[in-house]
Amino acid sequence: MLNATLSIIVPIFNGEKTLEKCIKKILGQVDEGTEIILVDDGSTDRTGEICQKLSNADKRVVIIKKENGGVSSARNSGIEAASGKYIMFIDCDDFLEDGYFDAFLKMEKLIDEGVIVLTKIKTHYMESKSVVVEGMDFDADKKLSLNCIVDIWNEHLWNAPVNKIYLRKVLRDNCIRYDCNIKMGEDWLFNNAYIRALKPKGFYIIGDVSYDYYFDENPWRHCTPEDFYENNKRQVEDFLYTLKELNIDKHEVDKFEKRDLDFTIVELKRIARNHTKKVQERIEAINVLLDRERVPSKIIKNKSLLKKDEVIEFILGNAIVIVIWEVIREKLGLIKAGIRGGK
């Protein structure tokens, strides 16, 4: 569709169970100025057939068929094909509430002025059948300072692309695409690149609607627990770079660096308790991480914000102390669990 107002990009791989319901929910709430780009990423089920059926029934539905390359590759294909002034991304297994897209387009003036408009995220945990609203602590429907970016990240609203609207011109002019070589956190890098290029005047969180995200509760789909820290570290460093490029207030940068330290402490504890490795291997791995992340100096800097036992455990930067400490913690935890279980 030429000169669309909004391009909605939906990457799909074997989405036969949810695709039709997802797209019909979208079609029921958008006008003729919207194109829905279905990117069939080499599906082997009935996805292609369903895409064709939807396209035959509604001229707003555009189909792209490609070899399997992953969600980043699929989204990139959608960006290349998009003609809309604005771009949004939707996952094919999510079902959006009525008025979702209209709520964004009502903010057109703010978006054009360089404000990042987003919604809260309502996460539906499929296995436990529970629902959590991310961003509950934010007052909605008002403009927020750019310095709120760390709090927005902390409330799990920054990384995902599905709860935001993007200016296609900014993506095109700055060659912003998803990194197809990354299986986890590629959306965080994408958003970082976008905000660096846009240099926005702030944020606006829509209060009327939220993005309904359906989660299968498998956090290790793309990597093992052992690889998680290293895979995520690149994104953390890129976000820190982004904060500094945007001249975010030092207090906010320090706040994120404290969260990064928390992340490193969790990884040090995991290594210390990894009984699949010999003690000497654990000590060596901990020493590498302590040195690379300058943990003792960060502990000193954030001493007042940390738990007292964490300061004692990590301030010396001694791997042997950390392993012993964590072994004791683990045994005490088992003892306490046994006492509770015996009551």
What does this protein structure show overall?
By secondary structure, the protein is α/β, with parallel strands linked by helices. The chain folds into three domains: 91 residues, Alpha-Beta Complex (Spore Coat Polysaccharide Biosynthesis Protein SpsA, Chain A); 126 residues, no CATH class; 94 residues, no CATH class. β2, α2 and β3 form a beta-alpha-beta unit. The chain is globular. The termini are far apart.
Number of strands: 9
Question: What's the number of domains?
Answer: 3
The biggest beta sheet is recorded as: 5 strands, mixed
SSE arrangement, N to C: EHEHEHEHHEEEHEHHEHHHHHH
Explain briefly what this protein structure is.
With 343 residues, the protein is α/β, with parallel strands linked by helices.
List keywords for this structure.
343 residues; alpha/beta; Spore Coat Polysaccharide Biosynthesis Protein SpsA, Chain A; 3 domains; four-stranded mixed beta sheet; globular
What's the arrangement of secondary structure elements?
Layout: E1 6-12, H1 19-27, E2 34-41, H2 47-57, E3 61-66, H3 71-81, E4 86-89, H4 100-105, H5 108-112, E5 115-125, E6 130-134, E7 143-144, H6 149-154, E8 166-167, H7 168-173, H8 186-198, E9 202-215, H9 225-245, H10 250-272, H11 279-292, H12 295-301, H13 308-314, H14 319-342
Parallel strand pairs: 1-2, 1-4, 2-3, 5-9
Antiparallel strand pairs: 4-8, 5-6, 7-9
Helix pairs in contact: 8-9, 9-10, 10-11, 10-14, 11-14
